[in-house]
Amino acid sequence: MLRTMIGRLRRARRDPSGFTLIELLITVVIMGTISAGIAGVVISYLKFSVDTQSRMTESQDLQFVTAYWQRDVASIGVRSNVYNDDEAVHSFALEQSVGLSACAGPSGSTPLVTLAWSEYSSLDSDASPTTIKVTYVTKPDGTRFDLIRVRCGTSPTTVEVADNLTATPVITCAGAGGSSCTGAGVNVPASVSLTLSILDAEGNGTTNYTETISGERRQT
Questions:
Q1: Is residue 117 within 8 Å of residue 136, measured between CB atoms?
Q2: Is there a domain that residue 32 lies in?
Q3: Model-level pTM greater than 0.85?
Q4: How many domains in the chain?
Protein backbone atom coordinates (compact mmCIF):
# COMPACT_ATOMS: atom_id res chain seq x y z
CA MET A 1 0.00 0.00 0.00
CA LEU A 2 2.85 2.39 0.81
CA ARG A 3 4.30 1.82 -2.63
CA THR A 4 0.91 2.56 -4.18
CA MET A 5 0.62 5.90 -2.39
CA ILE A 6 4.15 6.95 -3.35
CA GLY A 7 3.38 6.06 -6.96
CA ARG A 8 0.28 8.21 -6.94
CA LEU A 9 2.21 11.22 -5.50
CA ARG A 10 4.88 10.87 -8.18
CA ARG A 11 2.22 10.78 -10.92
CA ALA A 12 0.54 13.89 -9.41
CA ARG A 13 3.82 15.83 -9.59
CA ARG A 14 4.23 14.82 -13.24
CA ASP A 15 0.58 15.75 -14.08
CA PRO A 16 0.81 18.63 -16.61
CA SER A 17 -2.84 19.72 -16.16
CA GLY A 18 -3.57 23.38 -15.02
CA PHE A 19 -4.85 26.75 -16.36
CA THR A 20 -4.04 27.49 -19.97
CA LEU A 21 -3.23 31.01 -21.22
CA ILE A 22 -6.65 31.27 -22.89
CA GLU A 23 -8.37 30.38 -19.62
CA LEU A 24 -6.36 33.01 -17.74
CA LEU A 25 -7.22 35.68 -20.33
CA ILE A 26 -10.92 34.82 -20.18
CA THR A 27 -10.82 34.97 -16.37
CA VAL A 28 -9.13 38.38 -16.43
CA VAL A 29 -11.71 39.75 -18.90
CA ILE A 30 -14.62 38.43 -16.83
CA MET A 31 -13.20 39.84 -13.58
CA GLY A 32 -12.59 43.21 -15.27
CA THR A 33 -16.17 43.33 -16.52
CA ILE A 34 -17.55 42.48 -13.09
CA SER A 35 -15.29 45.02 -11.38
CA ALA A 36 -16.31 47.79 -13.82
CA GLY A 37 -19.97 47.06 -13.18
CA ILE A 38 -19.52 47.09 -9.42
CA ALA A 39 -17.48 50.31 -9.60
CA GLY A 40 -20.24 51.99 -11.62
CA VAL A 41 -22.87 50.99 -9.06
CA VAL A 42 -20.72 52.25 -6.17
CA ILE A 43 -20.02 55.60 -7.89
CA SER A 44 -23.71 56.07 -8.72
CA TYR A 45 -24.66 55.28 -5.13
CA LEU A 46 -22.16 57.75 -3.70
CA LYS A 47 -23.28 60.50 -6.09
CA PHE A 48 -26.93 59.80 -5.31
CA SER A 49 -26.17 59.91 -1.57
CA VAL A 50 -24.40 63.28 -1.85
CA ASP A 51 -27.18 64.77 -3.98
CA THR A 52 -29.81 63.44 -1.60
CA GLN A 53 -28.00 64.92 1.38
CA SER A 54 -27.78 68.26 -0.44
CA ARG A 55 -31.50 68.27 -1.15
CA MET A 56 -32.23 67.41 2.48
CA THR A 57 -30.09 70.33 3.64
CA GLU A 58 -31.85 72.70 1.24
CA SER A 59 -35.24 71.38 2.33
CA GLN A 60 -34.38 71.95 5.99
CA ASP A 61 -33.46 75.57 5.20
CA LEU A 62 -36.85 76.05 3.56
CA GLN A 63 -38.65 74.49 6.52
CA PHE A 64 -36.85 76.86 8.88
CA VAL A 65 -37.73 80.04 6.98
CA THR A 66 -41.28 78.78 6.42
CA ALA A 67 -41.88 78.57 10.18
CA TYR A 68 -40.99 82.25 10.62
CA TRP A 69 -42.53 83.56 7.41
CA GLN A 70 -45.98 82.03 7.74
CA ARG A 71 -46.26 83.11 11.38
CA ASP A 72 -45.24 86.71 10.57
CA VAL A 73 -47.59 87.01 7.59
CA ALA A 74 -50.45 85.58 9.66
CA SER A 75 -49.88 88.37 12.19
CA ILE A 76 -49.85 91.38 9.84
CA GLY A 77 -52.40 94.08 10.55
CA VAL A 78 -51.56 97.52 11.94
CA ARG A 79 -54.70 99.00 13.51
CA SER A 80 -55.73 102.65 13.46
CA ASN A 81 -56.10 104.37 16.83
CA VAL A 82 -59.42 105.81 15.69
CA TYR A 83 -62.53 103.63 15.90
CA ASN A 84 -64.55 103.56 12.69
CA ASP A 85 -68.25 103.31 13.61
CA ASP A 86 -69.41 102.95 10.04
CA GLU A 87 -71.93 100.12 9.77
CA ALA A 88 -69.72 98.30 7.27
CA VAL A 89 -66.65 98.57 9.52
CA HIS A 90 -67.31 98.95 13.27
CA SER A 91 -63.68 98.39 14.17
CA PHE A 92 -60.25 99.99 14.21
CA ALA A 93 -59.46 100.01 10.50
CA LEU A 94 -56.36 98.37 9.11
CA GLU A 95 -53.56 100.67 8.07
CA GLN A 96 -50.69 99.85 5.75
CA SER A 97 -49.12 96.68 7.15
CA VAL A 98 -46.67 95.55 4.42
CA GLY A 99 -43.82 97.53 2.90
CA LEU A 100 -43.29 99.95 5.80
CA SER A 101 -39.96 101.59 6.65
CA ALA A 102 -37.39 98.89 7.35
CA CYS A 103 -35.81 97.86 10.61
CA ALA A 104 -32.05 98.45 10.68
CA GLY A 105 -30.39 95.25 9.51
CA PRO A 106 -26.79 94.04 9.75
CA SER A 107 -24.10 96.03 7.97
CA GLY A 108 -24.11 95.36 4.25
CA SER A 109 -27.67 94.00 4.18
CA THR A 110 -30.49 95.11 1.87
CA PRO A 111 -34.14 95.30 3.05
CA LEU A 112 -36.45 92.93 1.20
CA VAL A 113 -39.84 93.49 2.85
CA THR A 114 -41.21 94.75 6.16
CA LEU A 115 -44.27 93.20 7.82
CA ALA A 116 -46.06 94.91 10.71
CA TRP A 117 -48.90 94.38 13.15
CA SER A 118 -50.42 95.86 16.29
CA GLU A 119 -49.77 94.27 19.64
CA TYR A 120 -52.07 95.04 22.57
CA SER A 121 -50.56 94.85 26.03
CA SER A 122 -53.48 96.37 27.94
CA LEU A 123 -57.14 95.44 28.37
CA ASP A 124 -58.02 99.14 28.29
CA SER A 125 -59.89 99.74 25.04
CA ASP A 126 -58.55 103.30 24.91
CA ALA A 127 -54.92 102.22 25.19
CA SER A 128 -52.87 102.55 22.04
CA PRO A 129 -51.33 99.33 20.72
CA THR A 130 -47.65 98.87 20.03
CA THR A 131 -46.63 98.47 16.41
CA ILE A 132 -44.37 95.47 15.84
CA LYS A 133 -42.20 95.46 12.73
CA VAL A 134 -40.22 92.62 11.19
CA THR A 135 -37.94 93.19 8.22
CA TYR A 136 -36.50 90.44 6.05
CA VAL A 137 -33.13 91.49 4.63
CA THR A 138 -30.61 89.84 2.33
CA LYS A 139 -26.86 89.99 2.82
CA PRO A 140 -24.21 88.86 0.32
CA ASP A 141 -22.11 85.90 1.46
CA GLY A 142 -19.49 85.26 -1.21
CA THR A 143 -21.40 84.32 -4.34
CA ARG A 144 -24.54 83.50 -2.34
CA PHE A 145 -27.00 85.42 -0.15
CA ASP A 146 -28.19 85.00 3.42
CA LEU A 147 -31.79 85.77 4.39
CA ILE A 148 -32.04 87.43 7.80
CA ARG A 149 -35.12 88.24 9.89
CA VAL A 150 -34.80 91.46 11.91
CA ARG A 151 -37.37 92.44 14.51
CA CYS A 152 -37.12 95.98 15.85
CA GLY A 153 -38.91 97.83 18.63
CA THR A 154 -39.90 95.66 21.57
CA SER A 155 -37.87 92.45 22.00
CA PRO A 156 -35.52 93.13 19.06
CA THR A 157 -33.95 90.05 17.50
CA THR A 158 -31.83 89.17 14.48
CA VAL A 159 -32.03 85.63 13.10
CA GLU A 160 -30.50 84.12 9.97
CA VAL A 161 -33.34 82.04 8.54
CA ALA A 162 -31.77 80.82 5.28
CA ASP A 163 -28.41 80.75 3.56
CA ASN A 164 -26.91 79.58 0.27
CA LEU A 165 -29.49 81.57 -1.70
CA THR A 166 -28.48 81.86 -5.34
CA ALA A 167 -30.58 84.99 -5.96
CA THR A 168 -32.46 87.69 -4.08
CA PRO A 169 -35.86 86.30 -2.98
CA VAL A 170 -38.99 87.56 -4.75
CA ILE A 171 -41.97 88.98 -2.82
CA THR A 172 -45.51 88.84 -4.21
CA CYS A 173 -48.76 90.00 -2.62
CA ALA A 174 -52.38 89.14 -3.33
CA GLY A 175 -55.76 90.14 -2.00
CA ALA A 176 -58.67 92.53 -2.54
CA GLY A 177 -56.23 95.25 -3.53
CA GLY A 178 -54.70 93.13 -6.25
CA SER A 179 -50.95 92.55 -6.31
CA SER A 180 -50.01 95.74 -4.43
CA CYS A 181 -48.21 95.17 -1.12
CA THR A 182 -48.74 98.68 0.23
CA GLY A 183 -52.53 98.94 0.49
CA ALA A 184 -54.53 99.89 3.58
CA GLY A 185 -57.99 98.91 4.83
CA VAL A 186 -59.49 96.17 2.68
CA ASN A 187 -56.47 96.51 0.40
CA VAL A 188 -54.00 95.18 2.95
CA PRO A 189 -52.66 92.01 1.25
CA ALA A 190 -54.52 88.87 2.22
CA SER A 191 -51.47 86.78 1.41
CA VAL A 192 -47.76 87.44 0.95
CA SER A 193 -45.45 84.98 -0.78
CA LEU A 194 -41.68 84.54 -0.70
CA THR A 195 -39.91 82.69 -3.53
CA LEU A 196 -36.48 81.28 -2.70
CA SER A 197 -33.79 79.57 -4.79
CA ILE A 198 -31.30 77.55 -2.73
CA LEU A 199 -28.29 75.47 -3.75
CA ASP A 200 -26.33 73.65 -1.07
CA ALA A 201 -22.68 74.67 -1.29
CA GLU A 202 -21.56 71.18 -0.20
CA GLY A 203 -23.45 69.30 -2.90
CA ASN A 204 -22.49 68.24 -6.41
CA GLY A 205 -25.75 69.31 -8.00
CA THR A 206 -26.12 72.36 -10.24
CA THR A 207 -29.92 72.72 -10.13
CA ASN A 208 -31.42 75.20 -7.68
CA TYR A 209 -34.03 74.05 -5.20
CA THR A 210 -36.78 76.65 -5.76
CA GLU A 211 -39.85 76.98 -3.58
CA THR A 212 -42.56 79.58 -2.97
CA ILE A 213 -43.64 80.02 0.66
CA SER A 214 -47.05 81.60 1.14
CA GLY A 215 -48.56 83.07 4.29
CA GLU A 216 -52.18 84.07 4.90
CA ARG A 217 -53.25 87.12 6.96
CA ARG A 218 -55.55 86.19 9.85
CA GLN A 219 -56.82 89.66 10.71
CA THR A 220 -59.81 91.11 8.86
A1: no
A2: no
A3: no
A4: 1
